[in-house]
Amino acid sequence: MSFISLFRHSDGFCSTNAKVERRGQVYLDMTETGIWYYSTRIQCMKNMCFKVFLAVVSVSSLAFSAPSLALSPEIVKPEHHYEVSTKLDVPLALGIALTSALGVYQYCGMERVSAGDLKPKSELLSWDRPFAGRYSGWATTVSHYSGALAVAPLALAGFSWYRGDTDGHDFGAFTLMFAEAFALENALNQIVRSSQLWPRPYIYAERGEGRKKAESAHGEAYGSFYSGHASAAFTVAVFTGEWFSEIYPNSKYKPLVWASSFALASGVAGLRVVAGKHYPTDIVVGALMGTGVSFGILKLHEICKKNISFWVIPGNFGAVFYF
After folding, report:
1. Three-state DSSP state, 156
2. Which of 153, 165, 181, 198 has the fewest CB atoms within 10 Å, i.e. is most exposed?
3. Tens of pLDDT, residues 210-229
4. What distance separates the 2 farthest-apart alpha carbons in the chain?
């Protein structure tokens, strides 16, 4: 509240132009004319002194209450942890959609490789060769069901919202970011795998169940690099750990959350090697891709990083930074 323009006119009128500003709206704290008539100069001065007294009392109350407000957790914590904006998310979502369409198109166009054109084992990376010909049915099944862990970040975010540690804005922004990261890492994986650098390990199986699977394999089995399961698992791990660290920065359980998240992701990646679906190189690169994409999406949406916008046109894209 601010009191301004208290005058005295020579004809005995005293015009007070007091205004109250609140939430962007202005209200005149006066009568319809805003003018009072006082018979003497003393009456006008009394009125001015009374208003000044109220202003001093109001300012003093705010000053003494400031320390207690500053100590309140609701005041010191940021209004939002992540921000969603049309300048960032619309072009980003469009770019991801186009990348996904390209990935699906190339992935569906993968064809079987004849025995004569199959890459020899000797051309595999030296540390990958021992895994050629491996296959495990139970590991394949377990690694597929591990996809249920993908709900972990959203379950944790929903629990934080339920407890009142965050609000619907952050939950919605986090869900959008997770969907963007998941879609982007999957699209990139399909594009790279469609290049068919080398086949899955079980394609080299010479007997048993692995041989049967190799004989009935589709074109996608001839593109092992890199692991989509590993990429997705580490995307989930990063989002789980980052959310917990952002919402509970002082929690003693942060190391445990990060360690358990990456341990589970590593377990999923390891199962893909045991299953004969991927080589060690595939899962290492997949883990790096999932981690990099996840941190990239998260950092773009931080409030302190929101001075950036993207543009996408057919055949080209870019970014604009504001300083």
Report:
1. helix
2. 165
3. 999 999 999 999 999 999 99
4. 113
